[in-house]
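Bench log, entry 3. Co-assembly request; chain sequences pasted below exactly as received.
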Amino acid sequence: MNCIIILLIYVLGAVATLASNSKNAAKIALVTSLINAVIALVLTGEYLNGNDISFTQQWISNPNISLSFVVDGLSLTMLLLTTLLLPIIILASFNTLYSKANQLYSLVLFMAFAMAGTFLAQDGLVYYIFWELALLPIFFIGLLWGSDEWKVRKRVMVTFFMYTFAGSLFMLAAFAYLYTLTGSFAWSDLSKAVLSTKEANYIFLAFFLAYGIKIPVFPFHTWQANTYEKSPTIGTMLLSGIMLKMGVYSILRWQMPIAGNVSENILKTVIIFCIIGIIYASLIALRSNNLKRLLAYSSMAHVGLVAAGAYVGNSTGYQGAIIQMVGHGFVMVGLFYLADIISKRYDTYEIKEMGGIRSQAPKFTTFFLIILFASIGLPGTFGFIGEFTLLFALSEKELLYAVFAGTSIILGAYYMLKMFQNAVLGSTQNKVFAEVTTKEYFVLAVICVVLIGLGIYPKLLTDLFIQ
Amino acid sequence: MSTLIALASLAVLILVLEIFNLRKTIVPLTLVGLLVALGLNICDFNSIDSFYNNMIVVNKSTVLFNSLFIVLTFFIVALGQSFYKEQYDKISDYTSLKIFLLIGAYCMISFGNLVMFFLGLEILSITLYILAGSDRTNIKSNEAGMKYFLMGSFASGFILFGIALIYGATASFDLDQIVLASTQLAMPKWFTVGFTLMLVGLLFKIAAFPFHFWAPDVYQGSPLLTTTTMSTLAKVAAVAAFYKLSVVFFPAMPTNFVNLIAFLIVATLIIGNIMALKQNNIKRLMAYSGISHAGFMLMAILLGKTAEPYLFYYMTAYAIAGIAAFSVILYVCQDKKEELVIHFRGFAKHKPVLAVTLSLALLSMAGIPILAGFFGKLFLFTEALKQGFYITVITAVITSIISIYYYIKVIIVMFTYKNADANTVYQKNFMYSAVAVAAIIINLVIGFCPSIIIDLF
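Structure output for the full assembly:
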């Protein structure tokens, strides 16, 4: 079997969803994503058996561009994350009745197609194309189905679009420059390119603009909280669960191998920015009253740590970043789903107006607690393994980095537990909070099983990319 | 050459049909005639030939550029069927004028002699002056025609004076002779002055800084279909002619001439994109967007001979996207007095396919991947970086970022405003929709497989 099948199925699914009516759209999308999840698992099996599942085909002869999709441990892990999270995200969206659902789910599948393509592509230009294609659907999802009145929404989404587009154009310029040096866009050629420190610096910075904005790394984060807040839940899940992983993945795949020759000062500055971002986002999260915004900033804090680890550039950092990307994806989808459930019952995201859920919905509280613990990295959950590896990688580079980055765990525990206390515990309010439905139970259970299962036996995942 | 004769006969035939009162058959016959001309043109693909003492030359690149012009004219004539519905008694004039315009464009790329170039330029310009002022009862159209005529004839004057000086330096109008003279003999000062004067005129014709001021006003005042013609066919024809001349003259210019062109590109890109941000009239917006694209196309001129396939690709992508965009604009604004962006409110709800078409066309111009415009920009950037024009490329990248804002503004207006006037009724119009969809399909196809065009050279 070939990895390109996944891309084809997503496109076909997107077309089929668009052609269907609003009622069946969600179901078709779910089926498509489930098929792809199964195929991804089959592909993993084939990959582990040593079969070749890559696809390469010349596309344009001048300039030399080929449609090359190569599977290795890193891209396979990201592919698994995408294909396995998507059914969960779609299932989680069943709570909400969206108008024009066929268009929405078609965009969702198209975005999954673009993201899967980004993770698989091994030709710089094809990778860039998928990278940009992923931006359009999420822009329209946020613009057309988002919350708040459309003028505010428009401003937020246009900022988001302009910001990320601006960053990626510099990446394109970097690729074009690399092409003039090597005569090829293929990863295998680009990573072998010999760059002087000066060239490497410019290319590193051009890539950093693209990835720093996407992840986002301080000080390029200003679009993030607003976009997360105004997007519909399904959009927020896609953004935080999968899309921002594109940035970290790209650091590991493109930026560090190609521009690894970058001067130490720039690398240090970038890592320090990541760490500033961790502390800064944690402090804002502490003061947030809006559940969605709090989660957005907590996401930024966690991803800052992942990015810092990725920029360390040693193998520990590499592994830690991949582990934490997977962990963070499941945790964020889980947390945003929980927030969505609360907001459906209480009709608000304001933490002040919540409270007393525990006595009314013990199952919900249990799930919340498990995912929350995974988010703050409690041992036994998958979050712990990722955070620990990343901090270890930072300490290998410089102990002080690890010390400062480590505050994220303390602060994270503080703001998350404080939020939990205010939102879920406390005295019972007048409002009724219904216990989770079967569907919600199922989604949350799957996420919890993944988080605890991989927390206890991470080898299942790490075998993919540690030889 | 047979193409040129066929086109000329076609233009006359259209006028004759009017005499015999066969008005209804004019547009279909013209379309067929254009297809025939396209076929004749493609037949010459592998031949290298020259006619009338090297007045007209035929080779692969002229055939390709001419094919693009013919295809664009085909679309424009097809749009005219609906556009001139209210003055259908004049359809023969309008249609034949467009064919004459095409003949001008043909001469502007197939010339082997500067005299032929000037003739082509004048044929193209004069038809455009007429078309710009063709909405007689509209004061704005009169203004546009007058403005364009006055400034355009000045520009033609510059070009003519430049040609005269070049003749003075080389004693020939023939391109081959000029190349021969300029490479072998020491050229007097006025050779450079001559080409600089031509440069002024050419910059005016393609609407590049600092001679771009006419474009927004003339685009706005002209009838919408004339604006379409100006921003697609006339623009790419002028750029193609400029490119052909630059290949001949640039090697003979002083070394810092390249810096001048690079500066003009940077300024054109910045002016075009910044000014477009605040426009609320879609025609003016497209005018400024056209100015910025002229900047991109000038990049190919800077890069010289190797950039020819890339320039051709960029032109095709730009012009085809322009046709698609303007067809939808025609559709929306068909009975509006002014073409404001707010008229597009809620358009997506009424006509989702056309709204998507316009979005794709604008995104192609903005350079979003997989659409043809993206590859156009990419090819130019890669080639420019190869030749070391870093600052030009960085400016182009930054202005591309700016440009996305005004394109996306139009798209957002179409998709979000729910409360379009409830009583807005969009008249059905098969021709506009058909042309828009056909053009965008071409754009997508050459976006998916850029090799189709690049490998032709």
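Chain A touches chain B through 29 residues (CB under 8 Å). Chain A is about 75% helix and 0% strand.
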